[in-house]
Design a protein that fits this description.
Elements lengths: L1 H26 L2 E3 L4 E5 L5 H10 L1 H4 L12 H16 L4 E7 L2 E12 L4 E8 L8 H16 L4 E7 L3 H9 L3 E12 L2 E11 H7 L1
Parallel strand pairs: 5-6
Antiparallel strand pairs: 1-2, 2-3, 3-4, 4-5, 6-8, 7-8
Helix pairs in contact: 2-4
């Protein structure tokens, strides 16, 4: 009886350790890409720098990102981060900042996760200064690996405005399948834009890697 109790305590202790370990991985994680580039899970500590980065590049980002028009003070970013952290704890969102040599250069993440269907949507942006250097491609590729191998998701979508050709090229280079167009699916400022839907399945990702 003593042995059984000892074994039960050992198992319970190890389960608790695993739970704490996984919680720390999922809620305080950094996804490393190379010696210069990494992805840090979005948190309050990023608020000021993220605001300053997005604010400085506001005119460039506003073309395809509707939220930029609300970027009037750091409080907007803080409120967004609070919501993102809550959604992260609920398991429906994992938002990261792209960090290059210690500096935030953009954001990437998986959003609108449906756990029952094991699906989610990828989103990303990067400042003009760092466009065309392969950082978005590497970052999205790393998040896909996280989605399919750590979160065990089965399908990931990318939705891009039809005019946002740079974003669409990322999806196609990564091997996504173009499925079709959602008409007037997004409002950006006073405009309504069509969205191209791309998808990748877990088995397709595994065959590419």
């Amino acid at each position: 009886m003593y042995f059984i109790r000892k074994q039960s305590n050992f198992i319970a202790g190890n389960i608790k350790f695993v739970q704490v370990y996984l919680w720390n991985i999922l809620f305080f994680m950094t996804l490393f890409i190379d010696q210069y580039l990494s992805l840090e899970l979005l948190s309050e500590k990023h608020a000021i720098e993220l605001y300053e980065v997005a604010r400085a590049d506001r005119n460039h980002l506003h073309k395809w990102l509707s939220w930029v028009e609300n970027l009037d003070s750091p409080s907007y970013i803080r409120d967004f981060i609070k919501g993102s952290v809550a959604r992260n704890h609920a398991g429906v969102e994992y938002a990261f900042v792209m960090v290059y040599q210690g500096k935030i250069i953009g954001r990437v993440g998986v959003y609108k996760i449906e756990s029952y269907n094991s699906v989610g949507q990828l989103g990303y942006w990067i400042t003009r200064e760092f466009e065309g250097k392969g950082y978005v491609f590497k970052s999205v590729q790393r998040v896909l690996e996280f989605c399919f191998h750590a979160l065990l998701m089965q399908r990931i979508e990318i939705r891009s405005a039809t005019g946002n050709l740079r974003s669409q090229r990322i999806a196609l280079r990564l091997g996504f399948t173009r499925e079709g167009v959602l008409r007037e699916a997004e409002r950006i400022g006073e405009r309504r834009v069509d969205q191209v839907v791309f998808s990748m399945l877990k088995r397709e990702f595994n065959s590419l890697t």
